[in-house]
Write a structure and sequence with these properties.
The protein has 155 residues and is of the alpha+beta class. 54% of the residues lie in helices and 17% in strands. The chain has a domain of 95 residues: 3-Layer(aba) Sandwich (Glutaredoxin), CATH 3.40.30.10. The chain is built from four helices and four strands. The protein starts with a helix and ends in an 8-residue tail after the last helix.
Length: 155
């Protein structure tokens, strides 16, 4: 009986030691994961460009041929211009694949038909919109105006 108690005590001690060591390593792993996540967030923040404006492009990839052609043309125009250079963050929403979310935006911004490109300032005030057709020359001129320093705008 005494021998069984001794073995039980030794086993329990060994088990306690194992659990203690395992617990400490898990805590360390948790700290390392948190530190790694924090470093990653800081690196992402350092790499992210600061956007002064945002643009919402609403298209429909599953529309009739006429609307799809206009949507594809709008995407081509926007892709040909460097919006990041103008400090514009582009968000593209596709009615064909994200119907519910896009429907809310269409109602919120009172978009009569697609494609629609709406440009906002930092405070989410609408600056300009294109509905139905995004003309490259108009968009390029607008982006040039946005890129000017505030002292030169409106001249």
């Amino acid at each position: 009986m005494r021998r069984q108690k001794t073995i039980l005590i030794v086993c329990l001690s060994a088990l306690s030691a194992i659990l203690l060591i395992a617990g400490n390593s898990e805590v360390k792993k948790g700290k390392n994961k948190k530190e790694t996540k924090e470093k990653a967030k800081q690196e992402v923040k350092a790499e992210e460009p600061k956007f002064d404006y945002s643009a919402l492009l609403i298209i429909n990839s599953k529309a009739c041929a006429c609307t799809k052609r206009r949507c594809d043309a709008a995407v081509s125009v926007i892709d040909s211009l460097d919006l990041k250079k103008s400090k514009i963050e582009l968000v593209t929403m596709d009615y064909g694949t994200e119907r519910d979310s896009v429907m809310k935006l269409i109602q919120q911004y009172r978009v009569p038909f697609l494609p629609a490109l709406i440009i906002f300032d930092r405070d989410k005030n609408e600056l300009k919109r294109w509905i139905g057709e995004v003309k490259k020359d108009e968009l390029k001129a607008f982006l040039t105006e946005l890129s000017k320093p505030k002292s030169e705008k409106g001249r």
